[in-house]
Amino acid sequence: MNALIVKGNIIYTKEMEQFEVFENSYLVSVDGKVVGIYKALPDAYSDMPIEDYGNRLIIPGFVDLHVHAPQYLQMGLGMNKQLLEWLTEYTFELEKKFKDLNFAQKAYEYFAEDLVASGTLRACVYATSSTAATEILFEILKEKGIGAYIGKVNMERNAPNSILESMEDSLEGTKYLIGKYKDEKLVKPILTPRFAPSCTQELLGELGKIANDYDVPVQSHLSETKREVEWVRELFPDAKNYLDLYGRSGLLKNAIMAHAIYLEEEEMMEAKERDVILIHCPDSNINLRSGIMPVREYLNRGLKITLGSDVAGGHRLAMNEAMVRAIQLSKLINIQSPEVEPLRVSEAFYMGTKAGGAFFGKTGSFEEGYFLDALVIEDHPLVAKLYSIEERLEKFLYTGNSQNICARYVEGKQI
Ligand SMILES: [Zn+2]
Fold first, then answer.
1. How far is the CA of 25 from the centre of ligand 1 (A)?
2. Which is the most buried residue in 283, 327, 367, 368, by most CB within 10 A?
3. pTM for this prediction
4. Residues of the chain above pLDDT 90, percent
5. ∠223-224-227 over CA atoms, to 5°?
């Protein structure tokens, strides 16, 4: 039996509304999957080695559903710009450099190091349009042992020529990566049309066919700023709305969409009907002054809301910070509209663990049958003495960083 037993103060969310807390307990997994949490270890496991973390916290690994690996280098730069200027002046200039594979290797290692240190154990990652550089990113994240979907970015217009590709090259590179990595256990390909304005209707349609033929999921951007929504309307006058454009292209069968700030009534209905996962990226939305996602309204409508760092619109990879920023933004909405309840800590935590984890199968929780993806958190002994498990987690989310994370497990294996 390939078992892992970790002991400590276990805390996670099964439902958004509340934490499940197991003080000083054993979390047992077999073949990478949780079988149970016990106050006293059952006889069946008594011979197994135990990793005893004493008074530390054991929580599910963080899940980042939206992050741009190449932009890690520009994190914290150009933050006085708005989206479209920022892309042109900073992002596209940087992404050009990834054609140099030496540069790509170093830059992606730098990114991956911090991603794992920050406690992100599952991520949906954008690379650049360079197929060869994207392949390097696959290899680096495989080596790290975390779970990820990685997308070569498809783009054929509205950016400098140096990062654009012909439709044929873009599709060919995409199919090559699917062929090479589709059956990987932890790091898999995802279709990544950058955002609608980077693509023609024809390219979107071809990607839709690939999504269907190869059964590959899709990630993109949706309704991030008002100007972008206007632009999409001009570029694609036949589409009913922004989401419909992806839908009519066959791209919404298994899709995650970042931002989704300015959805129309019909888009909200379609997102729900098609089970589209929406990704709230609070830091990015503040930095680029894009807007505020009406998270409470979406949750009340039963939409699936998760979290993303959106580095480098966001300026931190740490998902505990994204959770906190989501709560803070919801409080700003509450100041303006007191009837709209701000997010609770458990709700933000759920979004950044179980809700996002669902995209990877059963991850992000410690319920029976879930993959054991876990972080072990160490806080100050005085804090540990004074406060409850739930309070200690809240404090870590608000004030902690990678230095508080003393162990990381993916599918029952320490990485
Ligand atoms: Zn983005």
1. 39
2. 283
3. 0.98
4. 98
5. 85
